[in-house]
Amino acid sequence: MIADLVEEAEIKTKRRNEGVFFASVTFIRKVTQGIGAAVAGVLLTVSQFPAGAMPDQVPESVLNSFGWLYVPVIFSLWMIMIASLSLYSVDRQKHEANLEQLANRD
């Protein structure tokens, strides 16, 4: 998908910027991993999950609290991801048209 976006951007800007696009993917991956760790920490703190507890030592009320927090957060994040992917506008025909336009430009 990123390569398709590089070609789309090249048609619009007349410059090829693969490095910027692929660097942004790495940056976004690192940001989302950091956000994921932070959200996990907040969920564990809010649900009062005991630090260092063995699985059989966690009270059921804590597990229920964690579940009631975890499910809506994960569902919301997945909906945001799906909404973001729905903005991707390059389909097969557009991709082939972009390749043809780039080939004819040179």
Structure in words:
This protein has 106 residues and is mainly alpha-helical. The protein contains four helices and no strands. The chain has one domain (2-105). Helices cover 77% and strands 0% of the residues. Helix 1 (2-13) crosses helix 4. The two termini are 23 Å apart. The relative contact order is 0.11. The model has no long low-confidence stretch (mean pLDDT 91).
Spell out the key features of this protein:
106 residues; mainly alpha
Briefly characterize the structure.
This protein has helices at residues 2-13, 18-46, 60-86, 92-105.
Number of helices: 4
DSSP strand content: under 5%
Order of helices and strands: HHHH
The value of Rg in angstroms is 22 Å
Main beta sheet: strand number and arrangement? Answer: none
Average pLDDT figure: 91
Oligomer: single chain
Number of strands: 0
List segments where confidence is low: pLDDT < 50 over at least 5 consecutive residues: none
- First-to-last CA distance: 23 Å
| Overall 3D form | elongated
Broad structural category: mainly alpha
Specify the helix fraction band: over 70%
Number of domains: 1
Topology:
Elements: H1 2-13, H2 18-46, H3 60-86, H4 92-105
